[in-house]
Amino acid sequence: MVNSDNAKIRLLDAAGPEFAAKGFEGATVREICLRAEVNVAAVNYYFGDKERLYVAAVKRARALREEQVPMPLWAETLPAEDKLRQFITILLSRMMGVQAAPWQTRLMMREIQHPTAACRELVRDYMRPDFELLLGILDELVPAEIPRYRREQIGFSIVGQCFFYLAADSVVSLLIPAEELATHYQIDQLAEHIQQLSLAALGAVPPLDGMLLSPPTARPTNSWNPS
Amino acid sequence: MVNSDNAKIRLLDAAGPEFAAKGFEGATVREICLRAEVNVAAVNYYFGDKERLYVAAVKRARALREEQVPMPLWAETLPAEDKLRQFITILLSRMMGVQAAPWQTRLMMREIQHPTAACRELVRDYMRPDFELLLGILDELVPAEIPRYRREQIGFSIVGQCFFYLAADSVVSLLIPAEELATHYQIDQLAEHIQQLSLAALGAVPPLDGMLLSPPTARPTNSWNPS
DNA sequence: AATTGTTTTAAACACGCGTTTAACTGTCGT
DNA sequence: ACGACAGTTAAACGCGTGTTTAAAACAATT
């Protein structure tokens, strides 16, 4: 091959944001090829058809996002509370990115809401491992007698709180004034809030009555280096 | 007008489920009119174009869902804990319906994820009042000194937990075996779990350590009559 | 019964879509 | 030098889309 996968990769990089922004139906092959500076026929040449390009774009989005914000390997001795805090921060970071949610996340989001063939392996390769990781952390935080299904529900409660800011950010933006968003809705602050609320529910820290004395911003997230 | 809004209403009733299932781009005017047993030109005759039909369908979905599962008027004396439980149950009921999420909810869901003109008033007329209601309940549960933005974050945490099962049900279905879903993920059980976890976080009930003694199914939701 | 205005109809329109074709370009092995 | 082949190109194809049209059907009023 001469230039073989050069065009293929440019196509993928152009398809990702386009599908993320407009969905499978809304995005057009022509626009994607225009962005990629590639002939329209390239999509059929390299991927067969639009749908297989879409599936490839979803896979690539997952891989990219995972290496952008990987889950750290924790030391055995690290307290479960700290692991949970970092887990939540990473979850929020993946979902919200630095400013707005990156196209990789938005694309996976669409896949979650309107599952196609790509969804099954998305869950298997991407979400399942993270969820098991979370369950492992919870194992250290809740009494051993609590059944697995309860831990899973607790896990969903934690994930759900993070997920909300991704999935319903349009609602949050309309409910909360812009200046309050800027002041109190940064990733670290939300992570601290969710972590504190969750730990309080599990009895690992005092309930909210005491939170006044240590508001979320007072205790910054343990620093870790995602790069 | 003779038969005027008969066709108009049939059109709306057909458009709702269609838009909910396939989205604005995916749904076709022809298919909608076929369902409604109406000529294709009716859409332009009554609504002008496809987009205004969509907006009308969203508005109608909101109105329908609100009267299907209304928020009750609570007695002044009702403990805040009970109000919260009922609020959560209603939220979950609206989102999950009896079996799967009804088309009204799915349609509003699409609007939340990919906001169009209809989103702004959807928040203003539908979500804002409910959120204020929730904040009112939280006022009775948290110390007076806790600032408003903290209560809002707590509100989002509660809403987020419910919202997750609507927005990510494809993921939940893939993560949790079918039989466990049937056994432990009924509306009342989830409502009990979310309510208990939230109250524990606020210090209104003992933390999860004590939950073993009173698992979510043990204390059924107070009955109320939505009809 | 004739007239007016509203609603419904079948057919067509213009356009954009995903996909295909067939010719062309460049690169390599022989 | 030349044939074989991967890569690229412009143009076209067939189809489905939202929308429009002009006539027919209908109901109400005069």
Structure characteristics:
homodimer, 227 residues, mainly alpha, Arc Repressor Mutant, subunit A, Tetracycline Repressor, domain 2, 2 domains, 70% helix, disordered C terminus, DNA-binding
Explain what this protein looks like in three dimensions:
2 copies of one chain form a homodimer. Chain A is mainly α. Chain A folds into 2 domains: 4-65, Homeodomain-like (Arc Repressor Mutant, subunit A, Orthogonal Bundle); 70-218, Tetracycline Repressor, domain 2, CATH 1.10.357. The first copy, chain A, has 11 helices and no strands. Chain A has helices at 4-26, 29-36, 41-47, 50-68, 80-96, 103-113, 117-141, 148-167, 169-175, 178-184, 187-202. In chain A, helix 4 packs across helix 6 (103-113) and helix 8 packs antiparallel against helix 11. Chain A is elongated and about 60 Å long. Chain A starts with a helix and ends in a 25-residue tail after the last helix. The model of chain A is unreliable at 212-227 (pLDDT under 50). Chains A and B meet through helix 1, helix 6, helix 7, helix 8 and helix 9 of A and helix 1, helix 6, helix 7, helix 8 and helix 9 of B. Chain A binds a DNA duplex (30 and 30 nucleotides) through residues 1-4, 7, 28-30, 38-45, 49-50.
